[in-house]
Amino acid sequence: MIEVQDLHKNFGHVEVLRGIDASVAAGEVVVVVGPSGSGKSTFLRCINRLEEVTSGRILIEGQDVRDSRTDINMIRAEVGMVFQQFNLFPHLTALGNVTLGPRKVRGASKAEADDIGRKMLEKVGLGDKIDNYPSQLSGGQQQRVAIARSLALSPKAMLFDEPTSALDPELVGEVLAVMRDLAREGMTMIVVSHEMGFARDVADRVIFMDGGVIVEEGKPSQIFKQPKSARLKDFLRRVI
Ligand code: ADP
Ligand code: MG
Questions:
Q1: Given this model, what pLDDT does residue 27 score?
Q2: Which of 25, 36, 46, 52 is a good FRET partner for 59, with 20 to 30 A between their CA atoms?
Q3: Taking every annotated instance into account, which residue ranges of this chain make up the domain ABC transporter (predicted)?
Q4: Average pLDDT, whole number, for the chain?
């Protein structure tokens, strides 16, 4: 589904990604862990071209995201992204936020978009909050609206960049539960997260990044119980 080949990304003279090779199969859940500044966000942002790649290839179902013929709005619809900050429009209701994409990107009618929007908000457990504005929702509810907003575009894959890091601890669980459901339904997902419990339970594979490279990857049991590299051992000592 997603194929990344020798991805390099520089910011000015600083090489932030130094040759990333990764592939994610349809339905696979990959959790990316690593210290702050290791390039995890940049890696995700390159996949749906929020960042211009310096060199290397990124294919989504065989389609090169850098190809000039590739419609970047289509890539962003088909590879949904959820951020630490929910970035909802404050002047739109939950339903308004979720229906914007289907209307603007997919060209859905208001009735069609409302129908999709209601279904997606129900799916994330917010069927009774469709008319609430973001300011009338908790952080966990806002993040679930943000997930529903991505899902409303029928993505082929979802990227999550520390989706629970901005939440009060008691609200983390409700967002992780929605992500677990998505994973169970077979959504292809790449998740950057410090939630080691989620990684252990839900990930098919864990990737450990440090210094702009993938240092180690494997099944959660391997990564957490039998880390090979000193860098991963050191990281685990600090986070667990
Ligand atoms: P992580 O998500 O693992 O914490 P990031 O991908 O955010 O890491 O950042 C990796 C490195 O790239 C950091 O050193 C960061 O300062 C740098 N960086 C990220 N975005 C930019 C940018 N837009 N301009 C310059 N440097 C950046
Ligand atoms: Mg980050």
A1: 97
A2: 36
A3: 2-236
A4: 95
Task: Indicate whether 132 pLDDT > 90.
Answer: yes
Query: Which atom of ligand 1 is least distant from the CA of 43?
Result: 6
Q: How far is the CA of 73 from the centre of ligand 2 (A)?
A: 23
Residues 194 and 5: their CA atoms lie apart, in Å, by 25
Q: What is the pLDDT of residue 105?
A: 87
**Ligand 1 neighbourhood includes 36 CB (under 6 angstroms):** yes
pLDDT exceeds 80 at position 240: no
Q: Is the ipTM of this complex over 0.90?
A: yes
- The finding on whether 42 has its CB within 6 A of some atom of ligand 1 is yes
Reported for 12-20, long-range contacts at CB under 8 A and 24+ positions apart, including other chains, are 15/212, 16/42, 16/212, 17/42, 17/43, 17/46, 17/54, 17/212, 17/213, 18/211, 18/212, 18/213, 19/56, 19/213, 20/56, 20/209, 20/212, 20/213, 20/214
As a whole number of Å, the CA-based R_g of the chain is 18
pLDDT of 40 reads 98
Ligand 1 site, residue 16, Cβ cutoff 6 A: yes
Residue nearest to atom 12 of ligand 1 (CA): 16
> What CA–CA distance (Å, rounded) separates 227 from 240?
13
Among 8, 9, 16, say which to mutate for ligand 1: greatest number of ligand atoms within 8 Å of CB: 16
Q: Is the CB of 193 under 6 A from ligand 1?
A: no
Count CB neighbours of 23 within 10 A: 12
Query: The whole model's pTM is what?
Result: 0.96
